[in-house]
TrEMBL record:
Any Gene Ontology biological process: methylation
Domain of life, source organism: Bacteria
Domain Methyltransferase, residue spans: 64-102
Listed name of the protein: Methyltransferase domain-containing protein
Organism name: Streptomyces melanogenes
A Pfam family this chain is assigned to: Methyltransf_25
Amino acid sequence: MTTTAVPAALAWRADPYTAALRSGRGPLFLHRTDGWLLPLEVERWCAAPDPADLTVLRRCRGAVLDIGCGPGRLVVALAALGTAALGVDVSPEAVRRTQRTGGSALCRSVFDPLPGEGRWHTALLLDGNIGIGGDPAALLERSAQLVCTDGQLLVEAAPFDVDERVEVRVADGRGAFGPGFPWSRLGTAALLRYAHATGWRATERWTAAGRPFFALHRAYGVGKGGDDAADAGLVAPGP
């Protein structure tokens, strides 16, 4: 069965996703056209940051832009620490929930004009958000436009070897579906390849609760297409 893809900004306004965020619980899935399901961790997203999240928050510096902030747990936690943080998300319900719980957020795509472009010190792409738009290279290039010259991008990869661009729909497992939209998933090796191809270099990698994370910086003086093997061998520090 095939579906007609729509802009992700419309897809994430679909009822299954909105209903899950309002209740704070699933089940909720990304449904691929071949019937494959990827569970979405709604309960974790709607809770306070967990220990793995905290390893990311400790690495944030300066003003932080959370790309695809969802219900805003990271933005809210950063605000509570006195850190300037802004979330952007295409879901109105995600933005409302972020704002209700004490965070700042805009209902906007990362590819739309955003405040402070080129001046953010840290940008976040967590919880599978490297998949936004189904084009990792375009997303990484856009992220480079958002951070300052010495800014960083903290990215979460899939915990297994994968490099795919697919069409998916949000589904609640009970027969309700949103419209189709493009998505991608990247494991560690694929993320490093796309990072190098778009002028980023990995300066740190770590794993927490089975979730692989990377700190990326612009590869000034290094050039695009650096040494994947060198970055893949980065020594992982403690959390």
